[in-house]
Amino acid sequence: MAYENILLEKEDKVAILSVNRPKALNALNKETLLEINSIINEISADTEVEVLIITGAGDKAFVAGADIAFMQNLSAMEGREFGALGQKVFRMIELMEKPVIAAVNGFALGGGCELAMCCDFRIASTKAKFGQPEVGLGITPGFGGTQRLPRLVGSGMAKQLLYTADVIDANEALRVGLVNQVVEPEALLDTVKKIAKKIASKGQVAVRLSKAAANEGMQTDIDRAMTIEADVFGLCFATKDQREGMTAFLEKRKADFVGK
Ligand code: CAA
User: Fold this and answer.
1) Residue 241 in contact with ligand 1 by CB distance below 6 A
2) Among the listed residues 140, 6, 28, 30, the one whose alpha carbon sits nearest the alpha carbon of residue 81
3) Looking at the structure, do residues 215 and 147 belong to the same domain, yes or no?
């Protein structure tokens, strides 16, 4: 499939998806969400890709939100449908077996902040700006923001951001735990690629099971969560990677993982 609103590059075992709608600061309309949906399916099935990076094309925006021009005259049912589409695509990213890192290079507002939040973690450039400005447009966030923001930064900070529509800079995002690291704009992609390649060099069954256990465990009580961990831990002992990882350690050499 040819994509009009996204770019895809692959480098070693890492894919880089860039949202690319320069005329609207990479805002998400329905077509862009459908393209992301399709490319996520492709990347999930691509055996040459172990880690996905999501970023925004250009140097100004990650994603400046859902497309306001597209939403302006939606009916209630159309609004509901658009929200459900964004939620579905972002949940698919969150539940992808492969790790996903957001490289936030500029404005990550509304749907852009929500896209960054469905990734496993976020690295930001000093130029990044985060916020959920929806109440200033007379709407609530619709692609998961009311749910993921409190889970990431805590209820009080999330509610202040949701009710005031305040936009915060990268250092404040770091302080409240929305991002893991802030780097200079020129260093952003290289920093994130380095992290992605480090992840790709490990045992991929274990990486993916770690993601699944963390995601599932956070949705349940601690006893059930520990059972989930015991199950994935046990499952690792059925893999070649476990034998190789432990043998390599004991033989004092680098492990050669096969992802099985
Ligand atoms: N939707 C549609 N178009 C957008 C857009 C968006 N979210 N954000 C920016 N654009 C467009 C602008 O309309 C403008 O187009 P024209 O050149 O045709 O006028 C172009 O991108 C450049 O934007 P600005 O001139 O506004 O650039 P700026 O540097 O002055 O400001 C900005 C940058 C602060 C990000 C500003 O563009 C802005 O506030 N954008 C809207 C942010 C927003 O409210 N996002 C939330 C949307 S609602 C949502 O996302 C709901 C949800 O949860 C699903």
Assistant:
1) no
2) 30
3) no
Same domain, 133 and 106: yes
Secondary element (H or E) of residue 247: helix 240-250
Collect all residues with Cβ–Cβ distance below 8 Å to 23 and sequence separation of at least 6.
none
Tell me, yes or no, if 134 is annotated catalytic: yes
Q: Which structure tokens are listed for 4? A: 């009009």
Q: CB-based contacts of 153: which residues, under 8 Å, 6+ apart?
A: 161, 176, 177, 178
Q: Is the CB of 56 under 6 A from ligand 1?
A: no
> How many angstroms is it from 25 CA to the middle of ligand 1?
6
pLDDT tens, 54-105? 999 999 999 999 999 999 999 999 999 999 999 999 999 999 999 999 999 9
Structure tokens at 34: 């459908």
Residues 121 and 183 in one domain: yes
216 an active-site residue?
no
Judged by DSSP in three states, 236 sits in: helix
Residues 6+ apart with CB under 8 A from 240: 258, 260
